[in-house]
Amino acid sequence: MADFIYLMETRLSPDQQRALALVTDVARAHEMIVFLTGGAVRDIISGFIIRDLDFSVQGNALKLQKDFEKAGAVIEAVDETTRTVMLLLPGNVRAEVTSTRSERYEKPGKPAEITPGTIYDDMRRRDFTVNAMALSLNPGSRGLLTDPFNGMADIEAKVLRILHNYAFYEDPSRLIRATRLITRFHWALEERTQARYEAAKENNYIENIADRALGHEVEQLAHEENPVDILKTLEKEGWLKVLAPHLSLAKVDSSGLAHMFKVKQQLQEVGLNPDSSPIVMHFLTRKLSDKDISAMQRQIPNKGFVERWRSLEDDTKDFAKRLVAKDLVQPSQTWKFLMKSRPETALFAAITTRPAAVQQKLKNFLTKWPQLRQKLPFPEMPELRITPEHPEYKKIMDEAFLLLIDGKLRSHNEIVKFLTPYSPPEPPPPPPPLRRGRGAKKEAGPPAPGEHVPKKRGRKPKSAMAAAPPAPGTAPAAAVPALAPAKAAPTPPGRPAPSSGAPAKAAAAPAKPATAEPRIAAKKAAPAKKTPAKPAHRHTFKKKPAPNKKAKKK
Fold it and tell me: What is the pTM (predicted TM-score) of this model?
């Protein structure tokens, strides 16, 4: 459980984490059990980009609509048959909240018979094992993985496996989905799944596909990171003519798509997260007739997505007019306006708008102005005690950046003048350290009269013993006469005599003070030991040993 909680916290973006918390809180407020399911769990575990969030609740998900709107979500579409709500959450996070259910197909391609069920029933109705997993978001079991078909093993093996032999027969749209997923992930079909795929293709199961499933697969093209590769594979397998009869690779604006993904990355570096799916559909169908485009739009069940696709060009025209208005002359004013605008509108304008003034402002916004952030924080900020711990640090940084792009903080004096009002006062000096030892005792002063002073233990110093008065009733001891200096030892020949100015050790030693105790007597000085004189020569000759008389006799 802890591992999957960690994965959710690290793999989801900050906007997706807030969206997860929003949906969880709304579902728990209605006392519904909620799970993160489907492709979101698969992408969290496999490490791929998490495009959207899928939630399953045990209850009627349609009852949550009003609370979602109050929390700031936009309801793009509702399917009352499957009790599904399609949401666009703050931060352009796409989500789908559906009720757990079981499905039973009477005929291939026909709508299934739906009955409410548990989370295990909901897992059994899914297409592939890697999509039949759920993560609990409920207190007490948060992070618990439900994996009844061992989808984790198939993720490690990088294969797609159907749940049962009739998967392609019951829902032929799974043929298109399988082709799209193996192209995106560069995976392969499991051996049994590959055999069923070929059989379904040979028996032309795709003829029974439902219109709603086709519209869902058309929309999924817009959410792919590399839609051109998906179209190539679909065209090779023969599914593209079923999906969109008038769409082909020759009618796709590939250069426009490549430019769009490049500008999108620049916007993300600035801090904006545009939903590029309507723009992708614009370039995929740019060379189609209006009639063919309208037919595709009617087929897509997500009406909120269709509306954003249709209004893309009109919103961009209004955006370009507003960008060149008189109240957006200063770069800082333009920056504030662009940061508050819809990111996908700014993205589409940067690609398609022709006026030079609009292009220049968007170019500065994407390339020139972000480079000025590298000058922050200023070197003068630590000197003025403005650190990240400052309560207004973020506000100071934002104001400094806006002044930088306006060209108002070019010199050291201008920077110091701007930062000085935010500089906190200097901290007071630290208190002096406490003095310990004899000095502190002297400063304490003599004890007050009547105050009990504990006696010190240990031997008294000699000076205190000499100055102490005799105890009452005791006769003073006689002074001890000073000891006579010891005679100096004779100097051996060959050595220099000691200097007469150096005092002898016995004379230099001070006399012991007299004490009141009569038992202490002065000790007599020990006479100095006489050192025998050494001969002047250094070498001595050893006597030869006497010859052995027994050896001579022999």
Answer: 0.74
